User: Fold this.
Amino acid sequence: MDDDRPVDSVPTQTLEAFADTIIPGAQRFPGDRAISGVTAEDGAVAAGALAVLADPALGLADALNGMAGLLNMHAGDYARKHDVRLDPTVPAFVALSFDERTALVQDLTDPGHPEREVWFGAALFCTMAFDSAPHLSTTDALAQGHPGLSLIGFAAPEPDGLWRFPRFSYERALADPHPDTTSTGSPA
Amino acid sequence: MTATQKFDVVVVGSGFGGAITAYHLAAGGASVLVLERGPWLTADDFDHDFKLGSSYTRIFDFTVGDGMSVLAGNCVGGGSVVYFATMPRAPGFVFERHGSIGRRMWPAAIDRTAMDPWYDRVSEALPVTAQDWRDVPYAGGLFAAACAHAGRTANPVPSAIDKPKCTNCNWMMAGCKFDAKRSLLLNYLPAAVANGAEIRPLHEVQRLSRTGDGGYRVHYNLVDDTDYRLSSPGGTIEAKLVVLAAGAGATPVILQRSEAELGPMPHAVGRYFSGNGERLNTAVINDERAREVLGLDRGDGLAYRAHQLGKGPCVASWDKLDPALPEYSRFSLEQLYFPPGLGTILAQAPGASGPTWFGREKKDMLREWQSWLTVFAMTEDDNEGVFGPPPATGNAERIAQQMLGRGALSYQPTENTRRGWALSDADVKEILERDGIARVAPWSNDLVGAYTVHPLSSCRIGDDPQTSALDDRHELRGHPGIFVTDGSAVPGALTVNPALTIAALAERAVPGLVRAAQQRGVKVTYGAPSPSAAPTVAVASRG
Assistant:
C-alpha cells in the first residue's frame, strides 16, 4: 500500500469495490485493494460511480453507508459458505477476489433475491456513471476525456454543444418493401 | 381560500389523448383546462445532455413495477415530446384479435377500415409523412440490408419528423432541440391554447369526486419544479366533463384512488394492461462482415459503426405481420436507438461465459458500442398486467428526484407472451447472425422484469362490460361524464408503435365527447379544422 495515501473509509472502499465489479477498471496505485485491476482501462470508479451514487438527485445517498455495511455482511456470509479466508485489514467485500465479488453480485441481483432491487439500482447508477456520466454535463465530460464516454466512442458535439450528423445515410434502397404496404407507407 | 374554479371540461394529461380532445373541445367553444403533472418545456429548454436535472431526466419517467417497467413521458405534450415519432398504422388483423378473452377484444364498431379516416386526420395534423431511403440513417440501412440478405422485406416507416430540420442527433428522448420532431407542442397544443384552453403544468391529479349537480371535482397536488418527490396540496377544479388522458400507467391509478368516493369501478380498470408485447435485442455488428456480406460502405472507411446517429426507428420488417399466422406469433421488428445509461444496462453480452449484463465481458461489449444495432420487437402479449393498490400520491413512489420511481403494476407473462418474445428473438438472430454479420442477445428480463415504452390497455374500450372499462365512445362504464382517451383505452397490443392509433382513437372519440358535453348544457360544437390549418407557433414555456 502507498503509505502517503490516506486510507479511504470502509463505505468508500466497499462501494468502490462494488462499482469495480460492475464495470472493472485499472488500479489507481500499487496495492489498490478496492479496484481489482482486471482490465487495463479505467472503469466505473474512475468514471465517477461514487459521485453518482452519492448524488442527492438519485435516492440512494442516505442509504450508502447502510448498503456498504450490508454488502460486507453478505461478503462475510459468502466467505463462510465458500470457505474463503478474508483479509481482516480491509472490508469483507474488498477482501474478496474479483471473481468472488462477481459471483456475490450475481447472487444479490438474482430474480429470487429479496434485495435485488437495491443492488440492481446501485449497479444501474454505476453503469450510468460509466456510459453516460450523469453527474457531469455531457459536453464537459467529453472535453475532460471521461473514461466511459471515451471507451464507448461517444462522438463529440459541434462547437455550440449540440450534436449534428450531416452524413447519416447510405442513401440507397437496401431492401424491397413489404408487398402489402399501403399508399401511406403503413402495413395493410 | 379562493373560490372553486369551474370549467366545462377538465382534461387530465397533455399527451395525444389530452391534447387532441382539448383542442377540439376548446375550438368548439367549451372552456377547457388541461392539468399536466410534468413541466412545460419547449425547444429552447431541451438539452443535449445526460446530466441529472437536464431535460432528459425532467420530461421522462421510468417506473419500475413487479415484472414490468414502464417508460413514459412526463411533461406538457406527454409521450409526443419524448417519443421517436415513428407512426405506422396498426395492421388490419390487430382489430380482430381475441387475446386473453377468447373473443374479439375491440368494439364491433372499430376495424381498420373504420380507423383509416381518423388515421388520415392525425396524419394531416402532425403531419405524418412517408420516408424514403435517403432519409434512413445507417442503422436502419444496415438492418434493411440484413433483412434483404435473409430473404426478407424491410420498409422505411412513416414518421412525424420535419426532415429538413432534423440533424440525426438521436437526442429525441430529451425533447427535440430543433423542433424537427412534430410533437404536440407544435400543433394540437398551441391550437388548443389559441382557442382559449388553459394548460397548467406541475399539477398532478390525484382523484375525482362528484359535485352535487352531476359533474366532477378534480383534486390535484402541486409538484415541485425540480424534485418531483416533493408535492404540496393543490386544490380542486369543478367540471361538467372529465377527460382522463394521464397515460396507461397513471389513468387507472387515478380511478382506483377515486373509487372510495365515486363508487365501484368497472372490473377492467387497472387490469388487462399490455406492454405492447415489447422486446429488445442488441446486436454487435462485425464491421468487416457488414462490408463483405452486405456490401455496405459509408464512404469514410467504415461500413457501419454508427449506432449513435439517427432519429430513432426508421426501418421495420413486417414479414411476420401476416394475418394468416396464429395469434401470438405475429410481430414487427424495428431498428431502434436507445441512449446510454438506461439503454445499455439491460443489453446482454452475446455469448458471455460469465455475467451477461455487468462485469468484464459487458465492458468488452461497451467498447463496441458504436457497432451496436438495437432491434425492437412488438409482439402480441396477453394483457396480463394488473395494478395493485395506488401509492400515496401520483402513480409511483418516486425514488430519484426525477425519472425513477416504483409503481404498483404487476405483470407475470403468460406462455403466449413468452412464445411471442422467443419467436421474435429467434427471428432477430436468424436475420443478423447470418454469415457472421453480428452477434445478438436479447435484453435481460431478470432485473426489472419486462419493459415497455408503449404502455396500453389498463382502462380499455370494448363491447363487453366484464372485460372493458369503457364503452366504444370511451365513456367509463357506470360513471357518465368521465371519458378516457389515452393509451389505456387501446384494447391490446398493436404489433407496431401505437402513437398514431392512440391519437386516431382520440380523434374518433371527440364527436361523442362533444355530444356528452352538449347534453350537460355546454355550448360546444364539433367540426374544428385540423390544427395544421392554424399557424404552427410553439407554445411559450411557462410555469
Summary: The mean pLDDT of chain A is 95.
